[in-house]
Amino acid sequence: MTYGYLLAGVIVLLGLTTATMTWGGVDARFMPWWAIVRAAGQLTLISLALRGVLVHPALVAVALSVMFAAAVWTAGRRLHDLPGAATGVVVACGLGAGITLTIAFLLSMLQFDSRYVVALGGIVIGSTMTAGTLAGRNFRRAAIAQRPEIEGWLAIGASPSQSVADVGREAAHDALVPVIDQTRTTGLVTLPGAFVGALMGGASPVDAGRFQLVVLVTLITAQTITSVVLVRILGRSPVLPVSVARGSMNG
């Protein structure tokens, strides 16, 4: 594949995306273009940076730290109007990714090698960002919808955590639906990226399947920890969301 064909394909697909968003009346219809431009630039930089990381394993921690910082900053921006979200996202994503990756490599699910640490670490950290954003938004939406019930619990002496317990459970559950559905339909509806990537990299179907299974189970664990911890932290705030901020696609 030449870069000319790649560029043509990107332009056609993004053009179709913008046309569809325009037809559907969806705002920020040109943001996918900016997102792809950013992604291309960032992928170029990370490709160059990973050459050094894979040669010098000591830089793996630096690479993962940059990934984590970008993840929590992105999720934190999405939840900026939720009291306690900034700290909550850091703690929840840190625990979700840290505990999961530690167990995966301690139990030798994958070889403790720079390539696997960076690959699995990036996937897991990215998934905690997604889970944190979904859980936080679900929490905000449900808390606003159920405000009278929450205030009723507070009026009879319930603590903030007790008054939003149902909201938190619902928010965490809904945040986990995508990853659970993805896992349940793996091989039936889609061939996941990790599996396809391993195959294209020369791995046997068995080894590719093994790597994908590790990815799937770590995604479920990391996102579960992140979602539950985040809604617990958000639930401790004595301040309830007062309005639903329109989700921005910027950033």
TrEMBL record:
Topology of the protein relative to the lipid bilayer: Multi-pass membrane protein
TM region positions: 48-73, 85-110, 116-136, 213-234
A Pfam family assignment: UPF0014
GO CC annotation, single: plasma membrane
Key words, A-Z: Membrane, Transmembrane, Transmembrane helix
Subcellular location(s) of the protein: Membrane
Source domain of life: Bacteria
Chief place where the protein resides: membrane
Classification via InterPro entries: UPF0014_fam
4Fe-4S keyword on record: no
Record-stated family: Belongs to the UPF0014 family.
PANTHER family associated with the record: PROTEIN ALUMINUM SENSITIVE 3, UPF0014 INNER MEMBRANE PROTEIN YBBM-RELATED
Protein known as: ABC transporter permease
Source taxonomy: Bacteria, Bacillati, Actinomycetota, Actinomycetes, Mycobacteriales
